[in-house]
Design goal:
single chain; alpha/beta; Glutaredoxin; two-stranded antiparallel ribbon; 4 helices
Length: 184
């Protein structure tokens, strides 16, 4: 039996605090976005798909800022591995958190994988690491949107989220998927 419970839209998300590469800590509770906080969980330094994904995020980040969305990318990588990813991947414009506790990852509904040796780019996978997830959290701390994957591929594209956010903000579109009890 799994210890994962899916997060439900319109409900409070779990607490989230991680150390930042630039020093200090980041806490979702202290995030004060105009419209949303985008929390992007990535697999880590060993993942070449994460490199492309976070580069897409960095390129698109100004469009999110224009729409009142603050962004953080984080992983269960150690500080050293996260710093190496930032440097090698050229992620100088992203807020990057590291050392995500895997129990916290599970509370957020993320899948956890066991390392299987070196990846296609020759970097050793950690013994355990979280798989990708993307969440939009309202300023009141409730979930608006969530997507989790069991694999490194098939993640939401940031370029697709920009017009979706335009529609959401213009229409005051409600969070969907909030029904938990089908007997009600």
């Amino acid at each position: 039996m799994s210890d994962m419970t899916p997060l439900l839209p319109r409900q409070a998300v779990p607490a989230l605090t991680v150390p930042l590469l630039d020093g200090g800590t980041w806490s979702l509770a202290d995030s004060n976005p105009e419209n949303f906080t985008m929390v992007v969980f990535y697999r880590g330094l060993h993942c070449p798909i994460c490199k492309a994904y976070l580069n897409e995020l960095q390129t698109t980040q100004p469009k999110f800022a224009e729409r009142g969305v603050t962004v953080i990318a984080l992983s269960s990588d150690t500080q050293e591995r996260a710093a190496e990813a930032r440097q090698k991947w050229g992620l100088d414009q992203l807020t990057i958190g590291h050392s995500l506790d895997l129990k916290t990852a599970r509370v957020w509904g993320l899948y956890v994988s066991a390392g299987k040796g070196k990846t296609s780019i020759g970097i050793e996978e950690p013994a355990l690491f979280s798989e990708p997830g993307l969440f939009l959290v309202r300023p009141d701390g409730t979930l608006y949107f969530g997507a989790v994957q069991t694999m490194p591929f098939a993640r939401p594209h940031f370029a697709d989220l920009v017009p979706a956010l335009d529609f959401v903000l213009k229409s005051d579109y409600p969070a969907r998927g909030e029904v938990a009890d089908l007997a009600a």
